């Protein structure tokens, strides 16, 4: 591997998966799967292109565009498009790699991919964003399609951007098809799609609470990070179910207080729609704003911590602080929200304290609700029909329950645990997703032994 450029985010994601496979009995029972791991870790295709667009001053701007088509053994490549100045190939490979196994855990027929650009939408006008999206999709449209690759939104890509990109694709290809998910409700979008990642996270952790004998969400204190789509809808569902949300954050800092209200969420959502920071949220003194901080060491005693912002937002020290404060459940609403060192802390405490331990769930399982409803949107598009809000929500609940149960039972099968020890959801989810993809690849001749 020395001939390859360093890719720290992808290497972290790969090592996190590989280590749990190696520390289970999977390779003892199925040594041939070591070959499958080598094959699945290399993308089927990486597309990189330039994006040339014009700003409001009439000046030419250029960005890098990417699409990592990682694995299609279970269906068309599926995964979001991220617009953020930090986007590079390492980040997109890590996200695409995670997406393979996340999509497998939904039980839907979707492969894994990810894409985006180092374009920064902050501070850009609507016209500049439209021009960029048109230029970006003009190139990407050559490589995607309803039966090939179906992107969705991610950081920096919401309904507005999906609309501009879909219109560009439709005109360039002269086809109206379900090539993007997260579309407007009037032209092929699904109900519950904006809420899906946040809602699904809450549904998943609800099963963790129940299995661990901690009851339901009523009376639980919850620390949340992020203030975008995932955090907003997770907070609203938590409040609806009787929990108390004590924190939110963005890239500039965090707010911590007694209780976030639905009215607070509405005000923050309006700010974020205009791409404004939390510093502009008028909380009338009900919260403490912590510049440059994340909420984990400041939220006090909480029952549940839900990182919902971006990768590596819970460090080893923050994990130790959460454990010391009595946090019992941690689940990622963001992709790879915890560093490997933080996961090691949670897993060590899980083994040591058994039923009274902190219990950690990885993003590839806990935040799969978003791509699950994207898959349901694809199904509705294929049938030219639209399901009710209640039907989509029930399907989402069923998918999250199945993802939890699959990871739980797989951990029991392949990971030795002491009596009274909670099963490792990170190991179980990794193994379950990997085995499903590996078997499909083997059946299709992608690897053999």
Automatic annotation (TrEMBL):
Residues 190-445 form the Glutamate/phenylalanine/leucine/valine/L-tryptophan dehydrogenase C-terminal domain. The active site is at residue 114. NAD(+) binds at residues 197, 229. GO terms for molecular function: glutamate dehydrogenase (NADP+) activity; nucleotide binding. The keyword Acetylation applies. GO terms for cellular component: cytosol. InterPro entries: Aminoacid_DH-like_N_sf, Glu/Leu/Phe/Val/Trp_DH, Glu/Leu/Phe/Val/Trp_DH_C, Glu/Leu/Phe/Val/Trp_DH_dimer, Glu/Leu/Phe/Val_DH_AS, Glu_DH, Glu_Leu_Phe_Val_DH, NAD(P)-bd_dom_sf. It catalyses: L-glutamate + NADP(+) + H2O = 2-oxoglutarate + NH4(+) + NADPH + H(+). Keywords: Acetylation, NAD, NADP, Nucleotide-binding, Oxidoreductase. Homohexamer. NCBIfam families: PRK09414.1. Belongs to the Glu/Leu/Phe/Val dehydrogenases family. This is Glutamate dehydrogenase. It comes from Coniochaeta ligniaria NRRL 30616.
């Amino acid at each position: 591997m020395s001939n390859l450029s360093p890719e720290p985010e992808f290497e972290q994601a790969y090592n996190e998966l590989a280590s749990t496979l190696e520390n289970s009995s999977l390779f003892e029972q199925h040594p041939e799967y070591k070959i499958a791991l080598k094959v699945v870790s290399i993308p089927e295709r990486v597309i990189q292109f330039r994006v040339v667009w014009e700003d409001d001053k009439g000046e030419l701007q250029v960005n890098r565009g990417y699409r990592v088509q990682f694995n299609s053994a279970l269906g068309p490549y599926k995964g979001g498009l991220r617009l953020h100045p930090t986007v590079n190939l390492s980040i997109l490979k890590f996200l695409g790699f995670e997406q393979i196994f996340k999509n497998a855990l939904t039980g839907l027929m979707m492969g894994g991919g990810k894409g985006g650009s180092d374009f920064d939408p902050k501070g850009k006008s609507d016209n500049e964003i439209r021009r960029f999206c048109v230029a970006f999709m003009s190139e990407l449209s050559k490589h995607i399609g309803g039966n090939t690759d179906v992107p969705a939104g991610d950081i920096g890509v919401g309904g507005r951007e999906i609309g501009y990109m879909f219109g560009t694709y439709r005109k360039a290809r002269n086809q109206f098809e379900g090539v993007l998910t997260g579309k407007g409700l009037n032209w092929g979008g699904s109900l519950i799609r904006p809420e899906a990642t946040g809602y699904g996270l809450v549904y998943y952790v609800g099963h963790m609470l129940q299995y661990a004998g901690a009851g339901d969400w009523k009376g639980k204190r919850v620390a949340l990070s992020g203030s975008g789509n995932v955090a907003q809808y997770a907070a609203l569902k938590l409040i609806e179910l009787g929990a108390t949300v004590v924190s939110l954050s963005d890239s500039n800092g965090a707010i911590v207080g007694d209780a976030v209200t639905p009215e607070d969420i509405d005000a923050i959502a309006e700010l974020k729609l205009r791409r404004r920071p939390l510093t502009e949220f008028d909380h009338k003194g009900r919260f403490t704003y912590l510049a440059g901080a994340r909420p984990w060491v400041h939220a006090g005693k909480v029952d549940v911590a839900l990182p919902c912002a971006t990768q590596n937002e819970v460090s080893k020290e923050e994990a130790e602080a959460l454990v010391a404060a009595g946090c019992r459940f941690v689940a990622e609403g963001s992709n790879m929200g915890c560093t490997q060192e933080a996961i090691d802390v949670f897993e060590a405490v899980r083994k040591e304290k058994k039923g009274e331990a902190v219990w950690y769930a990885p993003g590839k399982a806990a935040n799969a609700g978003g791509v699950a409803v994207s898959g349901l949107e694809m199904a509705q598009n294929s049938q030219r029909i639209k399901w009710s809000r209640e039907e989509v929500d029930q399907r989402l609940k069923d998918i999250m329950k199945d993802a939890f149960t699959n990871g739980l039972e797989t951990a029991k099968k392949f990971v030795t645990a002491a009596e009274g020890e909670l099963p490792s959801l990170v190991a179980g989810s990794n193994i379950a997703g990997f085995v499903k993809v590996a078997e499909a690849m083997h059946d299709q001749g992608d690897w053999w032994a």
